[in-house]
Amino acid sequence: MLTPRGKSLSIASGTIKSQLSKGQKTFNTLIRQIEQGRSRLAAWEIAIPRYQQKHASELQPLIESAQQLEIKTVHALDQVHDQNGLTNIERRKIATVIARRAEALLAVYDDSALKALYNKHSGLDYDEVQAEEQVRLKTALEDALGIDLGDDFDMSSPDRFTEQAEAHIRKKRAEEDAARQARQESRAERKKSPKQLAMEAREQADEQQLRQSIRDIYRKLASALHPDRETDPQECERKTALMQKVNQAYDKNNLLQLLELQLELEQIDQHHINNVSEERLKHYNKILREQLTELKHEILRVESGFVAQYQFDPYEEPDPNTIMQHLAIAVASVKMDLHDLKKDLHAFEDSKRLKVWLKRVRLPRRKNNFDDVPS
User: Fold this and answer.
1) Does residue 116 share a domain with residue 46?
2) 206 domain residue, yes or no
3) Claim to verify: residue 112 and residue 161 sit in the same structural domain
4) What does the DSSP 8-state code read for residue 5?
5) Would you state the pLDDT for residue 367?
6) What gap in Å lies between CA 289 and CA 4, rounded to an integer?
7) Residues 86, 53: one domain?
8) Residue 374, beta-bridge partner list
9) Nearest CA to 2 among 259, 275, 238, 245?
10) Backbone angles phi, psi at 372, to 5 degrees
11) pLDDT tens, 94-122?
12) Structural domain tally of the chain?
C-alpha cells in the first residue's frame, strides 16, 4: 500500500517470497485487505450521493408517472369490464388484472376508489386481507426473533413497524447482555484456578502491550506535530491539520493511519518497517485484525442500508462501480413501461383491440393465479 507520498507501508520481501516470516506475511495481508476495504468504502461514499441525486431527479418522477397511468388503466378496465361482447373468460381476466394492479397500487397510495375496485373484482375485502397478512407477518417475525411483540404492536406503518421491532430487539439484547454479565460476575466470584489466573494475567499483559504500541506511535507523532512549537504560520496550520488526523486515528485505535502518518512525516522508513520485531508485529497484527473487522462492519452497514432503501436484490452483493448502470437500465425500463401503458389505454377504447390485448394475457397455471402481463 502507498501513502500519499507514494511510500510503501508493506514489508518488502526481497527476491524470495518465503523470506518473510508468518507474522510479516500476515501484516502485509492485513494491510492489503484494509486498503481494499477502504477503497470500497470510498467508492460507496462517491457512488451513493450520485445515485440518490439521479434516482430522485430521473427515476422517481418516471415511476410516479407510471403509477398514475396504472391508476387510469385500472379505472379504464373497470369501465370495459361489463360491456357487451366479452366472454366470461375475458371478464375474469379483466377482473383479475384489476384486482392485482389495484392491490399493488394500494401499497403506495391510500386510495378509497382503488380499494373499492379491488374489493369489487377480487371478491375479498382489502382491509381484512391486510389485517390477516399483518398477523402472519407479526407471527413470522416473532418466530424469527424469538420474542413476543405484544398485542399493541403496530403493523400498519412501515416506519412505526421498524421502530417498534428495533426497540424490541434492543430490549432483548439488553436482557441477554444483563444475563450474560450476571453469569460472568457469578463465575468471577468463584475461586479461580492458577491456570485461569495465569490466562487472565497474559490477556491483561497483551492488552496493555496493544495500548502501549498505539500510544508509542501517537506520542512520537504528537511531539513532531505540536503546533505551538512552530513559528511559521503556514507550517503551523499544516501541523494543526495533521495533528487533528493523529488525534482522530488515536481515538479510533487506527494503527494503520498512525503508521501512514509516521511514514509520511519520515519518522519511519522502509528499513524500519522491514525490521519491526516479531513481538511488535504480533501486537500490530492483532490491532489490524480488529480494525479490519470494524471496517467490514461499516461496509456491510452502508451496503445493507443502500440495498434496503432502493430495493436491490438482498442476495446479490451490490457493487458501487455498477449501481449507476443499474439505475440507467431502470430508467429505460420504466420509460418502456410508460410507453406500454399509454398504448394499453388506447387499446381499451376499441373492443377489437381490447380483445387482442386480452389474448396476450397469459392464462393462470393454478386457479385464481396468473400473470397479467401480456406476452
Assistant:
1) yes
2) yes
3) no
4) T
5) 43
6) 23
7) yes
8) 361
9) 259
10) -90, 15
11) 999 999 999 999 989 999 999 999 999 99
12) 3
Summarised one tens digit per residue, pLDDT across range 283-336 is 888 888 888 998 999 999 999 899 988 988 878 889 999 999 999 999 999 999
Torsion region of 150: left, alpha or beta (phi above 0 gives left; psi -120 to 50 gives alpha): left
Domain interval for residue 372:
20-124+293-375
For residue 1, being part of any structural domain is answered with no
User: Could you tell me if residue 160 is inside a domain?
Assistant: yes
Region at 311 (left for phi over 0; alpha for psi -120 to 50; beta for the rest): left
Instruction: Look at residue 96 and tell me if it is in a domain.
Output: yes
Q: What does pTM read for this prediction?
A: 0.68
CA distance 374 to 28: 57
Same domain, 338 and 270: no
**3-class secondary structure for 211-261?**
HHHHHHHHHHHHHHHCHHHCCCHHHHHHHHHHHHHHHHHHHCCCHHHHHHH
Are residues 253 and 300 both part of a single domain?
no
Closest CA to 345 of 112, 118, 68, 43: 68
pLDDT band at 180 (very low <50, low <70, confident <90, very high): confident
First-last CA distance in the chain: 54
Q: Which of 320, 316, 315, 327 has the alpha carbon at shortest distance from 302?
A: 320
Radius of gyration (C-alpha) of the chain in whole angstroms: 31
Cβ neighbors of 243 (< 8 A, separation 6 or more) are: 221, 222, 225, 226, 227
